[in-house]
Predict the structure.
Amino acid sequence: MSIKIRKQDALNFHMQGQPGKIEVVPTKSLSTQLDLALAYSPGVAVPCLEIAANKEDVYKYTAKGNLVAVISNGTAVLGLGNIGPEASKPVMEGKGVLFKKFAGIDVFDIEIDEEDPDSFIKIVKSLEPTFGGINLEDIKAPECFKIETELREKMNIPVMHDDQHGTAIISAAALLNALEIVGKKMEDISIVVNGAGAAAVSCTKLYIALGAKKENIIMCDSKGVLNTSRTNLDDIKKQFVTTKKIDSLQEAMKGADVFVGLSVADAITPDDLNAMAKDPIVFALANPDPEINYELAMKTRHDIIMATGRSDHPNQVNNVLGFPYIFRGALDVRATEINEAMKLAAVHALATLAKEPVPDMVVKAYGADQIRFGRDYLIPKPLDTRLITTVSPAVAKAAMDSGIAKNAITDWGAYYNDLQKRIGIDQKLISRVIDRAKKQPKRVVFTEATHPKILKAAQILKDEGIAHPILLGNKTEIQRLIEEHKLDLNDCPVYYPREEEEMVKRYAAEFYKKRQRKGLNYTDCERLMRERNYFAAMMVEHGDADALVSGLTKDYPKTILPSLQIIGTAEGVNRVAGMYIMFTKRGTFFFADTTVNVDPNAQQLAEIIELTAHGVKFFDMEPRVAMLSYSNFGSSKGEVPEKAREAVRLAKLKNPDLVVEGDMQANVALNTGLQQETFPFSALANEGANTLIFPNLASGNIAYKLLMEIGGAETIGPILLGMKKPVHVLQLGSSIREIVNMAAIAVVDAQLHEQNKHL
């Protein structure tokens, strides 16, 4: 059998993206003979000819634009010295893992058996057609300076020696923030740099670029201070010779504001620390053992700010904060080099990020109660997923502004989403919700404002213009937490129901009218109005707030009961339901009911189907609903499949245009190939389901939690469906970002309620 290859099919198969647009490249399918013919002969000839006609098309039809070479000759591996290229390979492979994990960049590690700089340069230069960028690693000084300088000049792709610039960028960000904490200025400080290798030289140059004065810097090597009495200094060290009459490190430490160690363990003593100026900043970066033991240093000077290269101490200067994101930004705009502007952009991005509220998931990852900007938190933590969306755009923009970018990013919102996809986070849907919320922010009342997470989320909502937070709780306690966490929320309304006599009486009277024939007297109503969930629900009902968010610390049923009693369900709705949005590798799915209805009957399931379909449309998606069971279209008997089939029948009677099928098993609902083969009549056979309705609470709750834990799905929810006014309940222990997302949903919900009210 012969296979005809169309030119466009071959090009589409090999296409990796379009100029000016960043895309996440999926793995190519090789499941058919046609796929194989497109991937190799004869189809591969088509993109080959396209690239031969225009070399720039190599970025269009291949993975070059997302491929970095990590290259070493093994002459300066970690602190182990010249151990050879073979022995360097584990380090280079590890670097490749970090590139992929943190920035989605593909890597080939290349170990070269060549110590002559000119030959090494020639070899690396010859690799330019293959790679989008070059990360030089573990090459000894002074050869590394020559190698990087010449390769940057000769190559038209980004080249960076990470041992030099990575440490410089991260430590510079830490230094900027440390100086801010102690109230000193870069141009006024005296700096001692112990070490004169690649990292020390690059750090010193970057500090000068940030405003440090060269005459205020003293650099030392293993023989002492680089001063005018030293002879036989190479050209690199000559740049940092001081005219001061100082010969030893111990003399240099007297009155110094900053010590940066890039040398050996135990290079300085407690006496050296005591000789430094007030509020000394000590970056002891030798690994694995710093220039002075951390515990000893902290015991010696209580006013010290200290950073090391170790993960078991605060303020770890870790290059992984820089290189993945710097290369990501450089690759995405096809920068021809990594210049000073891009490095400085990375410095400022890191320094700024450290001052923002730390996501709860990061705090948990490091086993801390809280992490906030200060002496023990100068720079972000390596596991902070915001790094890619903070540093990479800053680097990309700097490349564009300095005129070395071949591609321009025009839609920064789309780029932000693409960066999240690189590390497995697809936030396109919630980003749309947040954008809609920002257009018309609403008043969102939070019942648990004495919890730090709520206050930190409120700060984000306020800063980003998503919502106008209203805080409920003890005013003294809220103010204490605002000050403790250095938040700016003093202009947010704060109510403490136990002290709001006038509002409580007004709300209680209104509540009494609603519940006087349902077992409550006025005294009961007044007592309940002093509880925050009741008070908040009445604020929304009375129009003093537009939406309510609660549930961070209370069980779901207890949280929604006050709102059901006061606000009630929407017109025509007999019961509420809970829906989760599940972000998976296969796409976005909606699960219901996962939180409210324990064992709904067929009529109730039909109502849940309708509520969920409306909920999916709220997120600008068309629902394709599968009513799940252990049976496929009547293949098994029993209560569950029978009520599932009846629920589908009732749902179709109510809404004939709704795409809904069932009863059906979960794998069938998602597998279009299986449906087309076995159940071609299914309305879901072509696209599959994106909305899954579970027959009872147990199955829904189990399914979404298993998918989160085993399948690695990210979630938003539970979203409460069917309320008369916007009420949304958090999952117990929700993160700060989850609170922000839920509040954004509440704002958009309030916008729609307002629109419907005026129709």
Q: What stands out?
A: The radius of gyration is 31 Å. Residues 18-26 have pLDDT under 50 and may be disordered.
